[in-house]
Amino acid sequence: MQRIEAIDEYNRAQRSGMRDYREKTAAGKYPYLPALDELLEKTDTESQIPLGTIEIPLDYVVGTKTTGRTMAFASNFMPLLPEDTEFASKWLSLCMAHMEEGIHDAIKAYEYMGRFYVQEGNKRVSVLKYFGADSIFATVTRVVPRFNDTPEIREYYEFMEYYPLCGLYRLHFTQEGSFARLQKALGKAPDEKWTADDKAEVVSLMNWITKAYNAHGGDKMRTTPADVMLLLLRLYKLDELKTYSPAQFAAAIDAVWDNVLALERPEPVKLSTQPAAPAKKNSLLDRILPGIRSEPSHLKVAFVNERTPETSTWTSQHEFGRTQLDQVFAGKVETVAYHGAEPGQKCR
Fold it and tell me: Which CATH number fits domain 1-146: 3.30.70.3040, 3.90.1530.10, 1.20.1090.10, 3.40.50.1970?
């Protein structure tokens, strides 16, 4: 690539940055890259853990570590400074190097809540994002937030537990227990590490699902491509999904779309794992205790929880289900809940 060609690329990247800057400003949003240092001023953290040099997805690189270079980039990492600056000259050199032999040097970054903030290598990230690269190598330090009972922190702690097994940052779920369910769906023991082939298969599957899901408007939804992948793995075998065409993925997502919408709702609902079938009229007992021949006229059911609805989202969800059972089967089912139970102790 000649320098004059690189200048053209820089000008196009700068126009993209300026367009993003204007859109963010018009919407009343911060138009530059967020700085992790400023974010952490308002956050309690537990520790920092070096992860070594790993390959990270570029679309998960969202900001800088410090405020030093924040205003040189728009929020989409495209450059904002004029062509005649030293900053632009270095960007041009990296652009030419990328087109001739590629960018191979690892950047330095901090990871917080599954997103990356660059300490060294912002222009390398900018060039690679401009050219649509998928990933970059980075020497990463993880900043661990202090644990609390919010869904976001609980989900992140679950991710940290399973990351040593899967080694993939793209697996972002919105439902607790999803990593364990995925491990089971892949036919793996709870503590079994993924092989390189396992990772490649899941990444490939995620790419196809992401394209099909975004075509359904998924990029504007809270439910993630990983959530959708787990829904599909409840209905289809992995080996079957690996052979699917784009049209088949679109049809498969259509088949689970009601479940996708269910995940968008604030209240938990039971996800169907089989295609819809004509409703069969069963007795109350058949629904609760299938196989029992003699049906009593009244059932009493106890829900025993170690934690309270105020301190556990899991218990809160089950408490909601218990109250729904009382309402739907009033006079036929009586429920009672015990919270704060200790294993081995009698409930009173």
Answer: 3.90.1530.10
